[in-house]
From TrEMBL:
Domain Tr-type G residues, every copy: 69-241
Protein name (Swiss-Prot/TrEMBL): Translation initiation factor IF-2, chloroplastic
Lineage of origin: Eukaryota, Viridiplantae, Streptophyta, Klebsormidiophyceae, Klebsormidiales
Role played: One of the essential components for the initiation of protein synthesis. Protects formylmethionyl-tRNA from spontaneous hydrolysis and promotes its binding to the 30S ribosomal subunits. Also involved in the hydrolysis of GTP during the formation of the 70S ribosomal complex.
Family to which the UniProt record says this protein belongs: Belongs to the TRAFAC class translation factor GTPase superfamily. Classic translation factor GTPase family. IF-2 subfamily.
Amino acid sequence: VVNEAEVVSALFMKGIMATVNETLSRDAVKLVCEQFEVEVLEVEDEQIETMAKKTNEFISESDLEKLKPRPPVVTIMGHVDHGKTSLLDYIRKEKVAAGEAGGITQAIGAYRVPVEVEGETHTCVFLDTPGHEAFSAMRARGAKVTDIAVIVVAADDGVRPQTLEAISHAKAAEVPIVVAINKVDKDGASVEKVMQELSAQAQLYPEEWGGDVAMVPVSAKKGTGVDELLEAIMLVAEVSEFSANPDREAKGTVIEATLDRKRGPLATVVVQCGTLRRGDVMLCGDAFGKVRALLDHTGKSLKEAGPSEAVQVMGLSGVPAAGEVFEIRPDLDDARSKAEERGYTQRTQRLANLAGEGKITLQSLAAAAAVAEEGLEFGRLNLILKVDVAGSAEAIRSALEALPQDTIGLRFLLSMTGDVSISDIDLAQASEAVVLGFNVQVPPAAEAHSKETGIEVKQYNVIYDLVDDIRKAMEGMMEPEE
Ligand code: GDP
C-alpha cells in the first residue's frame, strides 16, 4: 500500500505540485504508477477526456452510460463597481425570490434561478460570491466548480484592469465566458466601445461581429436585458452539454462554511456528481460526519440533492475550507480514519512547505516542464507578466516569443501594467505559473502572500536579464538535469 504523502512526494520529485485531494492529469497518474510499478488500465480514454469538461472532471468509466444533463454553475466576475453585486441582487430578488413563497430566507452562497427558454423552464445555478479572488482561491485548492463565467463590464467605464484579470482567470480555467455590458441606462454608456475594448485588449469577439462570445447589454438597476443574459448563459450551457451521473455516491465542492453557535459546522456544498442524501457519511478535508440535514436557500429541509444543486450540510465534525472537495464514505469509522490520516498528511505537508519544499518557482516549473521531453503534457511554461508601461510588455513578449519553443512553449496568462497583486499570485498558484515583474513594485501584502503560498515573484529592471533567465530555464528543461 502506498500512502498519500508518498504519492505527493513522488509527484514533487517529478516536478509536479499536487495536494492530497487534487485531481491529477492522466499523464501525472501514469508517472506515479510507473514509479510504484503499478499497471495503468486505460479505459475509453478519449471519451472520458472529452466528457471530463462537461462533468467538471468527476467522472469515471462507469459513469459514461448514465450521464444526464445538469444545470450550469455560474460565477460573476468583473471590475469593482461595475455592478456584480447589483446584478446578483437583481437576479436573486426578481428571478429567485419572486417565484418562491416565503422568499429566500437563507443566504447559503448559491441559488437556483429558473430560466424560461422557448417556453421551457431550465435551471441555472449562481454562486453568490462575486469576484475572481474567490474563483481563483477555489481553483488554487484544485476545485473546479464554475462552468460559465459572466464578466460584468460597465458601459460608462469600459474595460479596466480587473476586467482583464477576471478574463485571464476564466481563460486559464478554460471556462466559457459570457459578457454582461452593464449600466446601459447611464449617460455616456457605450456598448460598442466596450465591445471594441474587449476585442482589442482581451481577444474576446462579440457574436455580432462574427466572434463567439455573447455580449449582452443589461442594466442591473432597471433589470433591462437580464432575461436575455440568462438566455445567453443557457445557450452556452446547451452547447457545452454539461452533464453528470446522478446515480452514484455524491462528490462535490465546499463553497462556504461557517460555525453556527446552535447548529455546529455548516457547509454549503455544490454537488457535482451523484446524489447527496440525508444520512450519508461525508468526508471533507479533515472534517467528516453523518449528514443530519440538507437545507436549500429557502431554509427548506431536503432529503437529497442532485448534480449542480447547492445545499447547506449539517452534521460535520469541523468547518472545512472553501474549495475543499467532499466525498461519501461507507461508514463513520472509515471516514474518521481517513480524516485523521488527512489531518496528519496536511500537517506534514504544511511542514514540508515551511521547510522550503513544494514551492512554485521558475526552477520547479522548469523541472515540471522537463517531463515534456518524455512526451508528456507539461511542456508549457506559464507566465504572468507585470510591467511599468505597455511598451515594456510588448518588448518583453516579443523578445520571449523569439526564443526557440519547439519543445517547450511559453504561455502568457496575463501581461499587463501595474504592480504585482495578490490576485496575480492566486492566478499563479491556480495555474502553476511564475510571476515576472518588470520595473514594478511588490506591495507588502502581495509579498506576504507570495511567501505564504510559495509562489515565486521574480523582479527585473533589465529586459535582457529577464529574457536570459527564462531562456536558461527553458534550456534546463530541454537538457534534463542528471
Ligand atoms: P460591484 O463592486 O461590481 O459589486 O458593483 P455594485 O453592484 O456594488 O455597483 C456599484 C455601483 O454601481 C452601485 O452604486 C450601483 O447602484 C451602481 N450600478 C450597478 N448597476 C447599475 C446599472 O445598471 N445602472 C446604474 N445606473 N447604476 C448601476
